[in-house]
Amino acid sequence: TPALEKHLQRLYAEYGFSLLVMGNGTTSKKAAQRVRAVLPETELAVVDEYRTTDAAREEYWRIHPPAGWRRLVPRGMLVPPEPVDDLAALILARRYVLQQ
Q1: Band of pLDDT at residue 1, cut at 50, 70 and 90
Q2: CA distances from 83 to 9, 19, 41, 53, 89 (A)
Q3: Confidence at residue 76, expressed as pLDDT on a 0 to 100 scale
Q4: Per-domain residue ranges of the chain
Q5: From the CB of residue 42, how many other CB atoms can be counted at a distance below 10 Å?
Q6: pLDDT (tens digit, 9 = 90+) per residue, 62-72?
Q7: Cα 60 → chain centroid
Q8: Total H helices, total E strands in the chain
Q9: pTM to 2 decimals?
Q10: At what angle do helices 52-63 and 85-99 cross, to 10 degrees?
Q11: Angle CA(98)–CA(48)–CA(16) in degrees, nearest 5?
C-alpha cells in the first residue's frame, strides 16, 4: 500500500475520524479517489485552497514575529524558516468550518 494509504489507516486507527477536509489543488481528484478507496465510510470535504500558502506564511509570522533585522523587512517578503504545511491545513479546516 502506498504511503498515503498507510498514513491514513494509521491516523484513522488512532483517531477514528468521520470527516476529512482537503484542498482542491492540482492533484486533489486523484488524492480523493485514493482516500475514498482506503476510507470509504469517511466523509470527504473538498475546500478551496486558493492562497492557503500565503495565508499560512502570514499565520506563521503572527505566531512567531520576526526578530532582529527581519522585523524591518515586510512580512510578505520573508520566507518562514520551516515548512508551513500544518498551518495551511489549519486554514483549510477553518475555511470548511466557516462554510458550514
Answers
A1: low
A2: 24, 25, 31, 10, 12
A3: 87
A4: 1-47, 51-100
A5: 15
A6: 999 999 999 99
A7: 13
A8: 4, 2
A9: 0.84
A10: 110
A11: 70
Q: How far is CA 14 from CA 8, 10, 11, 89, in A?
A: 10, 6, 5, 19
Note the pLDDT of residue 85. Answer: 95
Decide: helix, strand or coil at residue 80.
coil
Amino acid making up residue 69 = W
Question: For residue 1, which of 37, 45, 52 has the smallest C-alpha distance?
Answer: 37
Q: How many residues does the chain have?
A: 100
Task: Show the cell assigned to 59.
Answer: 499565520
Cα separation values, 68 from 35, 77, 90, Å: 44, 15, 28
CA–CA dist 38, 30 (Å, integer) = 13
- Cell numbers 486554514 correspond to 91
- Determine the residue type at 4: L
Q: Which residues contact 90 (CB under 8 A, 6 or more apart)?
A: 56, 59
> Which grid coordinates are listed for 54?
500565503
Calpha distance 97→51 (Å, rounded): 17
